[in-house]
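Thread: quick sanity check before group meeting

JM: Hey all, I'm pulling together slides for Thursday and realized we never actually wrote out the predicted structure for the chain we discussed last week. Dropping the sequence here so it's in one place. If anyone has concerns about the input, flag it before I start.
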Amino acid sequence: MTALSFLKMHGLGNDFVVLDARRRKLALSAEQRRHLADRHFGVGCDQLITLENPADSSADVFMRIHNADGTEARACGNATRCIAAHVMREKGNGAVVIQTVAGLLPAYALGNGEISVDMGPARLDWQDIPVAAACDTLHMPVALGPVSDPVGVNVGSSHAVFFVPDVAAIDLPGIGPALERHPFFPQRANIEFVQVVSPTHLRMRVWERGAGITLACGSGACATLVAAARRGLTGRKAVVELDGGELTIEWLPSGHVQMTGPWTLSFEGSIDLERLGEVDG
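JM (edit): ok, ran it. Output follows.
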């Protein structure tokens, strides 16, 4: 039997299977990753997280992210808080640096049990999103059904933020997949639908690239605040309310985006992947 130990964690219901490859090499196929993420035949998660030894000496761990469909992702804010909390407990420190393919993400613990993460700079140029043609990313030429005129933001991953009068009225499973794969987004995109409740309160629902509907998306919440601030709908700090709970997001004067919120360790376990092929280790 090929057994893999794992942690099951979540941030506001955005859930993760966490594997540790720092001492044991893991070589999972895309099929095995999809099996782990499957909620009927595997453990079930929105993203699969693998901890690796960092290449940068200033980092405490490298976090690799795979979506439920097996594809690799560059950023995941909720997972970053979870992994930061896990590594803090390992090291007995209140601050750590998480290395990802999108860069170094410093994180620190707050006294209330929440974790705050510097998600890096918000990138706003059309080539950084990226999109298929030069445009003003404050008003991108994308429309489908009842939604149009999104804001483009890259916070480690690509986001298109649509402002709507009522997020509850949006057919998320009906419109999300088509927008994710819209020709204007050559690398696909995360799609956010946002209702402005007040200048300090945004309500957001999300269709995540490679994962579909999730209860929360940390990088999407960051993109949402930046998009709202650029449109003059909020200031540079607000609470973003997601289906799974709330995050506090601030777009700092440096251009970086600070995300603060909770994390949860649900349980630990192991799973047999032998029937899906060999796992190196």
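AS: nice. The mean pLDDT is 94. The longest strand covers residues 3-11.
JM: adding both to the slides.
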